[in-house]
Amino acid sequence: MPPHRSHPRPQSEPGPQSEGAAPQSEGAAPPHDGPAAGRFAPSPSGDLHMGNLRTALLAWLFARTTGRGFLLRVEDLDRVRPGAEDRQLADLRALGLDWDGPVSHQSQRRVGYDEAIGKLAAAGLVYECYCTRREILHAPSAPHAPDGAYPGTCRDLTPVQRAERRAARPCPALRLRSGVAEYTVTDVLHGEYTGMVDDLVLRRGDGTPAYNLAVVVDDAAQGIDQVVRGDDLLSSAPRQAHLAATLGLTVPEYAHVPLVLGPLGKRLAKRDGAVTLADLAAADSDAGAEPGAVAARALSSIAVSLRLAEPGEAVTVETLRARFSPSSLPRGPWVYHPA
Ligand code: GLU
Q1: Which residue ranges does the record annotate as region Disordered (predicted)?
Q2: What does the pLDDT look like over 96-123, one tens digit per residue?
Q3: Which residues of the chain have pLDDT under 70?
Q4: C-alpha–C-alpha distance, residues 40 and 86, integer Å
Q5: 23: Cβ–Cβ under 8 A, 6 or more apart, which residues?
Q6: Å from CA of 222 to ligand 1 middle
């Protein structure tokens, strides 16, 4: 990977004319012209568990060892649990991670999403979709369409059909008229990865910008050219990259890192026991241990799982930064056994 890349000015970012934003809106932020960056983008739906913390550490290591900035973006368009964001940030700091500039929030970036949809609509690439989830599930799939792809029910309706459907569902979702069935991305860990692209949702029926749109618009507006995240999102990358390319934005480099599994071999979750720093601290305080020791121990065990430390070795993120090399990362999932 090159140590540093200049980042061309993304085309969809708000220019000086975008004054419609509320004064506090992060959507009206000045165009990005700093160095390229990586990021961690948690959803504030609960506390970060060992798997999320490991992904955050990896995103930081990838960025900080390639001369990139590192940004934190809270993906709060839905699933917000009160207090979760503060606890997530505190846990990241407790591990020793830092980030550049203020934390951004998707809920403050609506202007950017609306602009992107406007640009796509002007190019004739947006259509209203009146389908319910159930209808999509039960619709016969289009010929040659892969499983799970939107079958295109609302793609080419006549004006009369559209009016009928709109009467039944006055708040339609908006979909991208995508034009391709698949797209190939480059991933540092997975190589060339080709995945399905369908007419993905851009804005949900309730008006909320869709995750795929928000992520693409934000990554470009923030100058993010390296996306490191869990490999459960690998299959979303082709859709997002295609959307970025359609919007004329730079497609980032991806590194989809292995997930952390619980003792039963399923994705790590609360049900697996003490999986967050707060859980571990609660267990520790019963045993009379010092609270600050929890994050240090969690960092050490994550580092061991990444083959960056010996079992029981005390490490800091700076030590790990000096040892990190993407090529020696374990490629399989880490099975975490809560104490
Ligand atoms: N907010 C997403 C999550 O917490 C991550 C999205 C991304 O990294 O692109 O799963």
Answers
A1: 1-45
A2: 999 999 999 999 999 999 999 999 999 9
A3: 1-34, 142-145, 286-289, 291
A4: 15
A5: none
A6: 15
User: Is there a binding annotation on residue 154?
Assistant: yes
CA-nearest residue for atom 7, ligand 1, is 41
Listing DSSP states for 214-264 in one string gives HHHHHHHHTTB-EEEEEGGGGGGHHHHHHHHHHTTPPPPEEEEEPPEE-TT
Is there a binding annotation on residue 183? no
pLDDT at 256: 98
Pocket test for ligand 1, best of 79, 215, 232 (most atoms within 8 A of CB): 215
**Ligand 1 pocket residue status of 80, Cβ below 6 Å:** no
Q: 10 Å Cβ neighbour count for 312?
A: 9
Test site for ligand 1: of 75, 106, 216, most ligand atoms within 8 A of the Cβ = 75
Cross-strand pairs, 185: 193
CA pair distance 48, 58, nearest whole angstrom: 14
**What is the pLDDT at residue 157?**
96
Q: Please give the pLDDT value at position 26.
A: 57
pTM listed for this prediction: 0.88
